[in-house]
Design goal:
Length: 108
């Protein structure tokens, strides 16, 4: 079980990742394209860089958040592959991040 502080940090990262993808738009098949658009993983990395200066802690938070994200996603697909599907919009990705943030805050 994670500490409340860890859960709050992970939820904040997920919420910021949702904002990033909504602001920048969605990239396909790369973390960030030449127009500044990002995929789900790109949005997550931008959020981590902005919110968590300590790289070791950032990796720990990313791992925790990815576990929570995968629980909310369709089975047998990675976050990257899911995000790169043409039918998945930036709104879908933002909703996944926001639902996950809510879940982390409630359940830990």
């Amino acid at each position: 079980m994670n500490s409340p502080e860890t859960n709050q940090a992970v939820a904040a990262i997920a919420r910021r990742a949702a904002e990033v993808i909504q602001q920048r738009g969605k990239a396909y098949n790369e973390y960030q394209d030449s127009l500044g658009r990002v995929c789900a993983v790109g949005a997550l990395r931008v959020a981590l860089k902005e919110l968590v200066p300590d790289q070791l802690k950032a990796r720990q938070y990313e791992s925790l958040l990815r576990r929570h994200l995968h629980q909310a996603m369709p089975p047998h697909i990675s976050l990257t592959k899911w995000s790169d599907q043409r039918t998945i919009t930036e709104e879908d990705i933002a909703k996944l991040f926001l639902r996950t943030a809510d879940q982390v805050e409630v359940d830990g």
